[in-house]
Amino acid sequence: MFAASLAFFFVTATTFTSLGYVLYTMVAELGWSKAAAGLSFSLLGLACGIASPLPPVMMKTVGTRVTMFLGCLVLAAGFLIASMISDLTYFFIATSLMGIGFTLAAPSPAVYLLATWFPRTSARMIGFYFMIGSSGGIAGPLIVGTIVGLTGDWRLHWMVMAICAALVGLVCLICVRDAVKVESVEQVKGPGDKRDGAAAQPRNWTVREALFNPTFVTLAVIMTVVQLVVTSTHSILVAHIATLGDGAAPGAIAMSLLAFAGTGAKGVTGAVCERYDPRRILIAGLILQAAAMAVLWSSPHVLVACGAAALFGTGWGMTWLSAHVLILRYFGAAIAGDMTAMATTATTLAVLGPVGAGTIADLTGSYAPAMLVFSILLVGAIAVAVLFLRAPQQRPQGDEAQGGTDGVGDLVPAE
């Protein structure tokens, strides 16, 4: 649990949450356009999405422990290339490797592990996992600010992160234990369900059935919108707040506040989902995110923007964790890793966000119009959740007897 959480902490601290701060420094020194900087951020997200099917395959062939170790090595390679670049093309390669490494190290492998390590309290443990991992977003901008601020050298930052990635990989190789063998259907029936017995019991879904179920499609759409806005916010928040008049330092603080609020929200949401309907928590989180984007669009004050960042982080934590709990609850622990990977693949469209926001900023001189667009998108996601997000329909009873799955969680024998 410690090693898996450490890996998520590290990849969160060194990629999405801190890349925006490093880019702000790199763009000024290398003379890149805002759209080009946004494209490098988008390639990070694109690589995450395209590589999402890899963890289930590798977990079945080489095991979860080795999969996470290889993810850290790929991450280290990306950081090493970033420390030596002078050309934008090579930085695109570096961020793409970072995205692949992120996907192999977290969160899909760990969600599967946690669902089988803790079959009765998986929602709560996944909440703790996301809380610990997300706290990397608090440390990331501060670490970048310290290294770059003291040395003035963003290359040194990337070099230090490459060394740390290799060390984290060794920790995973030594400490992570592959998922225990599930001995019975009952062991993974309903992990994370409410204790009052009111929750629907997940059945033996196959990945193929779950993938084309309207409930999963709806969740994937919502998660794509959320990931688009989150990825874009991470890429532009520092630069947006810097334009309000006080430089990049308040932007780094806002990024840490966003991550701090998201961390706390994810930690609490896991336990709350055991008592209350995760669907309602997801909708509430979307509302908070939409309100925060509207505030960032309309307010010219740094303190208000920092407060909106914290509000956005809270909504993000609630939405993201509850969405994963819904996947686990609706489709069962046996294919939790596969469905998490498929949902991540669906969010690949989120890579359009940073490029679009950078283009808007190049044309208008401000990121504020992009914030308004993101608020409108989130309102649309709220409508989709309210109108269409429901528990999946039961399959015909005859199909239940087939048993088994066709994914990583191929743990349940045919009856």
UniProtKB/TrEMBL annotation:
InterPro entries to which the protein is assigned, alphabetical: MFS, MFS_dom, MFS_trans_sf, MFS_Transporters
Gene Ontology annotations for the cellular component aspect, listed alphabetically: plasma membrane
Domain of life, source organism: Bacteria
Pfam families: MFS_1 (PF07690)
Domain Major facilitator superfamily (MFS) profile per the UniProt entry, residue ranges: 1-395
Membrane topology, from the record: Multi-pass membrane protein
Annotated spans, Disordered: 396-415
Principal subcellular localization: membrane
Compartment(s) where it occurs, according to its Swiss-Prot or TrEMBL record: Cell membrane
Transmembrane segments: 36-54, 66-85, 91-114, 126-150, 156-176, 211-230, 281-296, 302-328, 340-361, 367-389
Keywords tagged on the record: Cell membrane, Membrane, Transmembrane, Transmembrane helix, Transport
Record-level Gene Ontology MF annotations: transmembrane transporter activity
PANTHER family cross-referenced by the UniProt entry: INTEGRAL MEMBRANE TRANSPORT PROTEIN (PTHR23517:SF3), RESISTANCE PROTEIN MDTM, PUTATIVE-RELATED-RELATED (PTHR23517)
Designated name of the protein: Major facilitator superfamily MFS_1
Protein's organism: Novosphingobium pentaromativorans US6-1
